[in-house]
Amino acid sequence: MKIFVLLAITAVVFGLASAFKPPAVRYDDFKVYKVHVKDEQQLAEFKKLANNLPVRFLNDISGPGRSYDLTIDPANQMALEDQMQYFEFNYERTIDDLQEVLEQSMPANVESSNATMTWTKYHQLADIYDWLDNLAIANMFMVTPFIIGKSYEGRPIKAVRISTCPGNKAIFIESNIHAIEWISSATTTCFINNLLKAETKEMKRLLKSYDWIYVPVLNPDGLEYTHNVERLWRKNRKPTRFSNSSGICYGTDLNRNFDYMWGGAGYNIDVPCDHWYGGAAPDSEPEVVALERFVNSFPKNYIRMYLAFHSYGNLVLLPYGHTTEEFPPNYNQMMRIANAFAAGAKVKYGTQFKSGASGLLNYPVSGSAKDWAYGVKKVPFTATIELRDDGSKYGFFLPVSQIVEVCAEVTDGIVEMLKQARIEGLFK
């Protein structure tokens, strides 16, 4: 009888937990706009748009002379357009129905499929981790698995090291630090899969000549949240503070939380409920601490290249992000290597990548992973690679039909990047 009562209570508890699971957010008929901000006066008015309307900015706001993406619900669309016309913004509507675009990339069943990893869909965390575990089993003599730490909600953060020859120097790859950027882990898993299969002469050379350290999903809580609740989520899921006006604020932008020039620059990095909040202090997030400890576990000078994959923009962003006036001592060398990536990535599909310091080319940001790897760990080449597209059509919401193409152009880019890095003596 006691067992029966216990089972009944357990069933009720699980039923209530399921009942209170937040429904997935939908964006039916939400419009996405690209807005050009020409001067400081327009910039001030642009920032005020969110004070009066339920506008959601999709990228960081830095200075004038740039274009920014935002989305709004259909009920407020006309009010937004009236405001933009009143302040004489130059704008265009890039997406008419955001939900329709999202459904081009969402799996039909949001639960993990446990299917074989493919690159014709965006996978959830369980699928990516199953694939990573199977890589280690199938290639046990060259793939070493790691659990580098746990997320705030207790999920493991998994990694592997691929090594075929003793004495090789290493290339470090991380992706999906921002939950919304599904194409980042889709691209890196595809690249690592191709690397281990190594069918071409170039890929065999990459497999033989370098060690590869790979963290596919640095933000597992955020990735799961984007698949099940809120596709536009960016941060991790750690509560940040209680505010009388807004309740509990969740999440820190992990790529603003590393302990290098933390808090020095960036839009709304000190606003806990904002998408770009950098945390209460550097290294306040368990995911960031896990990555730093993992990098610290390797010998000095072993990691010679650090590549952080993000979207979107078609950019190869170099240190530094916190300034537009200070540059790394070997900046010219880094530019040659970055430009080699851009040249390689252009060949198959004509995709144009721009290279340069992130503070100049993109927007000011402090506490990023690539700047920490360069400034603290002295890795001689670090870059954030912003994948397709340039924001003119899909932005964060790249259709699954483009995953294979993005993987191919990134693979070609890495091949050429490493050729140039060899010439520059980076791996000596």
UniProtKB/TrEMBL annotation:
SUPFAM superfamilies: Protease propeptides/inhibitors, Zn-dependent exopeptidases. Belongs to the peptidase M14 family. GO terms for biological process: proteolysis. This is Zinc carboxypeptidase. Coiled coil: none annotated. Involved in the digestion of the blood meal. Residues 121-421 form the Peptidase M14 domain. InterPro entries: CARBOXYPEPT_ZN_1, M14A-like_propep, M14A_act_pep, Peptidase_M14. GO terms for molecular function: metallocarboxypeptidase activity; zinc ion binding. It comes from the Eukaryota. Residues 1-19 form the signal peptide. SMART domains: Zn_pept. The active site is at 386 (proton donor/acceptor). PROSITE patterns: CARBOXYPEPT_ZN_1 (PS00132), PEPTIDASE_M14 (PS52035). It is found in: Secreted. PANTHER family: PEPTIDASE M14 CARBOXYPEPTIDASE A DOMAIN-CONTAINING PROTEIN-RELATED, PROTEASE FAMILY M14 CARBOXYPEPTIDASE A,B. Keywords: Carboxypeptidase, Disulfide bond, Hydrolase, Metal-binding, Metalloprotease, Protease, Secreted, Signal, Zinc. GO terms for cellular component: extracellular space. Its cofactor is Zn(2+).
